[in-house]
Design a protein that fits this description.
Elements lengths: L3 E5 L5 H10 L14 H15 L4 E6 L2 E9 L2 H21 L7 H15 L13 E7 L8 H16 L3 E7 L5 H7 L3 E8 L12 E9 L5
Parallel strand pairs: 4-5
Antiparallel strand pairs: 1-2, 2-3, 3-4, 5-7, 6-7
The structure holds coenzyme A.
Length: about 220
């Protein structure tokens, strides 16, 4: 029987977080067929949380070894500002120094992501009501053991303790396991948006939709 537990994030788990985001980056599966540079992928998706808001990250352990993470952000406006001021400049510096290997596959993924942003296809639920957000991923062998629910529960408890009014998150139709999970935990579907060009188009012809969930943390009146 696997023993699961959750602990606060510590820098010793940074490599495991970066590994996990990569091997779950395609709807819960390895993103390698679509994005080949592990460092760039991890920098884009986890650097903010591990390096600028580590106090709101949690690690799931299975028999003492990292099984996955929840990366939390208490105020998405701070995230957006820090991405512009700190994280993207770091990434651009690494790019200029040739620290990433951008092949054709990776370049197409990035171009599609940028195009979609430029078209304004994604969305953010209202930040006055739902300022916090989260990302959660578990390595495949450690799913359906209750770890995800415990990780989200810990983050929601912390947010309630901080007096946060609410939380949002974005997932996609490629993340087939996430919808039942978020709905079971009490998140409400807020919006669905179709991406004209799926970032996974190279090998996956299905339409891709962004799906956005919210949860109010205000006690019921
Ligand atoms: C989504 C994910 C974080 C859920 O974590 P988990 O530890 O597997 O989920 P839990 O065991 O805590 O499940 C809690 C409840 O959520 C629901 N749930 C979880 N996974 C589900 C699935 N695949 N399908 C339907 N419902 C699901 C169930 O009601 C479950 O309760 P039950 O097991 O008693 O029936 C995990 O499966 C995962 O990392 N998946 C791949 C990556 C991913 O999709 N991440 C989210 C990106 S936005």
């Amino acid at each position: 029987m696997t023993e699961v537990s959750i602990v606060p994030y510590d820098a010793k788990y940074r490599a495991a977080v970066r590994d996990c985001v990569f091997v779950t980056g395609y709807g819960g599966d390895d993103v390698t067929p679509f994005f080949t540079d592990r460092e760039l992928f991890a920098d884009l998706l986890t650097l903010y949380y591990t390096d600028y808001e580590p106090e709101h990250a949690y690690i799931g352990l299975a028999d003492g070894a990292p099984a996955g993470y929840l990366l939390g952000c208490a105020d998405t406006r701070v995230y957006e500002e820090t991405m512009k001021r700190e994280v993207f400049p770091r990434i651009f510096k690494n790019l200029a120094r040739g620290r990433y290997r951008i092949d054709g596959v990776t370049a197409r993924y990035i171009a599609r992501g940028l195009l979609s942003q430029w078209r304004g296809e994604g969305m953010t639920p209202p930040l006055e009501q739902f300022p916090a957000h989260l990302h959660i991923d578990l390595f495949a062998p450690y799913r359906r053991l209750g770890l995800g629910a415990r990780l989200v529960g810990a983050w929601l408890d912390d947010l309630r303790g901080m007096g946060s009014p609410g939380i949002h998150l974005g997932t996609s139709t490629a993340h087939t396991q996430s919808h039942g999970f978020y709905q079971k935990l009490g998140f409400r579907r807020y919006a669905v948006r179709r991406f004209r060009t799926s970032i996974f188009k190279d090998r996956d012809q299905r339409d891709l939709y962004g799906v956005y969930y919210v949860m109010s943390l205000r006690p019921h009146q």
